[in-house]
Design a protein that fits this description.
With about 160 residues, the protein is α/β, with parallel strands linked by helices. Helices cover about 30% and strands about 20% of the residues. It has 5 helices and 7 strands, in the order βαβαββαβαββα. Strands 1-2-3-4-5-6-7 form a 7-stranded parallel β-sheet.
């Protein structure tokens, strides 16, 4: 029921105008808008939140943000889950749950559930989710799910 978009561009820092356009579009559609790796932009533009990728182990929460500001992060193993907890994220995207074209190593349902029980944070399933295996998510401890290709099919 709740949809959020995470803007990720690790090659080039986005311009303020670029982010304002995306944020404006999302607001009109009642979609939460988070930005990855550019906390300064998230705060400056008063965005809905911030995404901390698994490779970002240096970010530590600053207190200059609004009450409903959502901080989420991604993890693939126990070590990364513990880092995200220290970074005080509210949600952890745990991936990949299913096999993907890019990644033949995946968690599967049992390992996903075991890892999700390590933390008290809400865990979101990510990776390889499609129309065939989406029903399998009912067997997980996932708070929600995310999937670029699955969402593209719904939107188009």
């Amino acid at each position: 029921n709740k949809i959020a978009v995470i803007y990720r561009n690790y090659q080039n820092k986005p311009t303020i105008n670029e982010i304002k356009k995306f944020y404006s579009f999302c607001k009109k559609k009642q979609i939460k808008f988070l930005i990855s790796n550019y906390f300064d932009i998230a705060i400056k533009l008063n965005l809905d939140g911030f995404y901390v990728p698994s490779f970002n182990t240096k970010f530590f929460l600053q207190k200059n943000y609004h009450k409903k500001f959502l901080i989420v992060g991604s993890a693939h193993n126990i070590k990364e889950i513990k880092i995200k907890e220290k970074q005080n994220v509210k949600l952890i995207f745990l991936s990949p749950i299913f096999k993907t074209k890019k990644n033949k190593n995946f968690l599967g349902i049992i390992r996903f559930n075991n890892l999700s029980q390590i933390t008290k944070k809400k865990v979101v399933a990510l990776g390889g989710i499609n129309t065939i295996n989406i029903k399998k998510l009912k067997m997980t401890n996932a708070f929600g799910f995310s999937g670029i290709s699955h969402i593209k099919k719904i939107v188009n």
